[in-house]
């Protein structure tokens, strides 16, 4: 029995045959997501997981960015929220950061359906971490990149990136980009087989790109015995699942002290007031 799920104005979903399609639909702020939106994403993954007609969970987005990561306005609101009285800074960030982050990351790590990401543009931060947890990635063109700006924001790796990035791009390439806050550009994503296909479409054509990927997927799944696809995902995942589960806990618990000390909040504030920028 499938439960009902609430609506979210930044994220839509629909089911089409074996595909559970999740779409980010807030292009005006580059699909930045607040804590509650990431929780909603996790809930949608659970919904897809429980639906036995679904074999592929497809992440799509709109506009020029896939997602610019955590919404800095939402983070400032969490800090100013007088409505909730926390016993301590630790208690506040356990609620606002640790619980949410560990939940959405876990939803991606344990997801049993094949996760497909349609990268219509760059992805940043936690959203980029979730992209790196997908099984198959298609890109709209060669202008896409992934940026993990943790060193610029007073944070440390999260969303499983301590495992997913070295696994997919190699340890030294990962160190160079994480430590010096540099993006993983299209070239390295291609060299490592991270991107399965570049659709070579203009960045302004996200909608057409999303439709084209779906059209190809419909053709690709024709005649397949879909339970085999899930059986293979389970086995491929078995190689790394223990490392992901372990790192999810280590990452959020490690980050907690940074939030309690206040540096990320200060730097998110600077990002919001445009005093701080990421070098791209
Ligand atoms: C589940 C727990 C939740 C808490 C998790 C906390 C842990 C952190 C996780 C992360 O995701 S860290 C990464 C956070 N994101 C960023 O650092 C990106 C910030 N944005 C930028 O650096 C730039 O916007 C850009 C992405 C490089 C694009 O630059 P560009 O010059 O092309 O566009 P802008 O004019 O800057 O942006 C357009 C529009 O969008 C708004 N916006 C962009 N990113 C965000 C964001 N992350 N949050 C809120 N709003 C965002 C930006 O303010 C502009 O809006 P207007 O000024 O036009 O109203």
TrEMBL record:
Location(s) in or outside the cell: Peroxisome
Any Pfam family: ECH_1
Molecular function as annotated in GO: delta(3)-delta(2)-enoyl-CoA isomerase activity
InterPro entries (alphabetical): ClpP/crotonase-like_dom_sf, ECH/Chromodomain_protein, Enoyl-CoA_hydra/iso
GO cellular component: peroxisomal matrix
Top-rank lineage group of the source organism: Eukaryota
Name recorded for this polypeptide: Uncharacterized protein
């Amino acid at each position: 029995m499938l439960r009902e799920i609430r609506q979210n104005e930044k994220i839509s979903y629909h089911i089409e045959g074996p595909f559970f399609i999740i779409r980010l639909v807030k292009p005006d702020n580059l699909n930045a997501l607040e804590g509650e939106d990431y929780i909603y994403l996790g809930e949608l993954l659970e919904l897809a997981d429980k639906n036995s007609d679904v074999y592929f969970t497809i992440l799509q987005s709109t506009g020029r960015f896939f997602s610019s990561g955590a919404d800095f306005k939402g983070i400032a609101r969490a800090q100013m929220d007088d409505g909730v009285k926390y016993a301590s800074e630790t208690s506040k960030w356990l609620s606002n950061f640790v619980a949410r982050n560990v939940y959405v990351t876990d939803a991606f790590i344990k997801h049993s359906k094949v996760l497909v990401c349609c990268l219509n543009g760059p992805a940043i931060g936690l959203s980029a971490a979730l992209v790196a947890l997908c099984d198959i990635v298609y890109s709209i063109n060669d202008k896409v990149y992934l940026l993990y700006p943790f060193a610029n924001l007073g944070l440390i790796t999260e969303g499983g990136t301590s495992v997913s990035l070295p696994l997919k791009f190699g340890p030294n390439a990962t160190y160079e980009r994480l430590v010096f806050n540099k993006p993983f550009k299209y070239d390295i994503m291609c060299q490592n087989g991270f991107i399965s296909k570049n659709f070579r479409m203009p960045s302004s054509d996200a909608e057409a790109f999303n439709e084209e990927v779906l059209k190809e997927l419909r053709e690709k799944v024709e005649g397949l015995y879909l339970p085999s696809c899930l059986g293979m995902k389970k086995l491929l995942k078995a190689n790394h699942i223990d490392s992901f589960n372990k790192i999810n806990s280590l990452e959020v618990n490690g980050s907690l002290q940074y939030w309690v000390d206040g540096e990320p909040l200060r730097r998110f504030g600077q990002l919001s007031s445009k005093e701080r920028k990421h070098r791209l």
